[in-house]
Amino acid sequence: MAITVKRDLSGAMRHIVHIGDHAFAVDEPPDNGGEDTGPSPHDIYDAALGACKALTLVWYAKRKGIPLAEVEVTVERDASQEKEGLYRLRTLLSLGGDLSEAQRQQLLAVASRCPLHKLMTEVKTEVETAWK
Fold it and tell me: Which residues does 120 contact at the CB level (< 8 Å), separation at least 6?
């Protein structure tokens, strides 16, 4: 599957991301020259981690018959040392449902092993940039 990002000339830095049948705007905040008409690439990166954890929790709970109801994942970013090679993300979980403490601990462990968490922390990513 290919993801396409195309400039939208209606904004200074606005682009439209196309993923399959989905499309959404990306932009930068005004202090980076944008107009804040959509999330920034960093926002999407961070959100992907939160979404992966949430979806993994629901998938796992259904598979194991755990009565998980509400799921909320908050992602906090500390990019203060990004230029030095350290980008910190902290995820906070809020779960609802008739869960035992053992189930809550099981779900916490599962969230720490979601595919994107592993991808961000255990896999070397290689990126190539070439002409189309």
Answer: 49, 89
CA 130 to chain centre: 26
Q: Give the type of residue at 81.
A: Q
pLDDT of res. 1:
81
Q: How far is CA 131 from the centre of its chain?
A: 28
Best CA proximity match to 2, nearest among 14, 25, 18, 22:
18
| DSSP codes, 72-111 | EEEEEEE-TTGGGT--EEEEEEEEEES--HHHHHHHHHHH
Q: Which of 14, 58, 51 is nearest to 36 (CA)?
A: 14
26-84 confidence digits (pLDDT tens):
999 999 999 999 999 999 999 999 999 999 999 999 999 999 999 999 999 999 999 99
Query: 74: closest CA among 57, 92, 56?
Result: 92
